[in-house]
Design brief:
- This protein is 66% helix and 8% strand.
- It is mostly helical.
- The chain has a 3-stranded antiparallel β-sheet.
- The longest helix is centred in the N-terminal third of the chain and has 28 residues.
């Protein structure tokens, strides 16, 4: 049987996940940009030029999904495909990076998100926000450390 305090944490994580998904969907409608594309745009803005394999790894999606999402951004003019330019790099490997339009778009979304968060968390102190961020990161680190291949021992009710 799962202890009550553990169940409360699992329920809170599930609720946060649902809220995050709902907010992401609303934001993507407001920005007229698919939610998956927003994640890829923000990733490229943060990480710079990436291979499609790196995109798939960071977004935790299949290579074909990363390729499709990248192609959609390229077709929309938000990203451009490139070849690795570093000395000694395999020039056959294709990479993707934000275009000027993509950088402008992500900057506009950042400004909107900052304004929204400032409004929503307006009655929180900076210390409360830092403490919440610290706890969320701690939960993410703890849950992320679970061995994905470990089979939990199931107990009949």
């Amino acid at each position: 049987m799962i202890p009550e305090h553990s169940r409360a944490l699992i329920d809170a994580i599930s609720r946060l996940t649902r809220v995050q998904r709902d907010i992401g969907e609303k934001l993507s409608r407001q920005l007229d940009c698919p939610r998956a594309a927003l994640g890829l745009l923000w990733l490229l803005d943060k990480r710079g030029e990436l291979t499609i394999g790196d995109v798939a790894t960071h977004l935790r999606v299949d290579l074909s999904v990363a390729s499709r999402q990248t192609s959609a951004l390229v077709e929309a003019g938000y990203a451009e495909r490139t070849r690795q330019s570093a000395p000694g790099a395999d020039h056959r490997v294709r990479t993707v990076r934000l275009s000027d339009a993509g950088r402008t778009f992500t900057e506009q979304t950042r400004v909107r998100m900052d304004a929204l968060l400032a409004e929503v968390f307006g009655d929180w102190t900076p210390e409360q926000i830092q403490a919440a961020a610290g706890q969320i990161n701690r939960v993410a680190d703890t849950v992320g450390a679970i061995d994905a291949h470990a089979e939990p021992e199931l107990v009949a009710p």
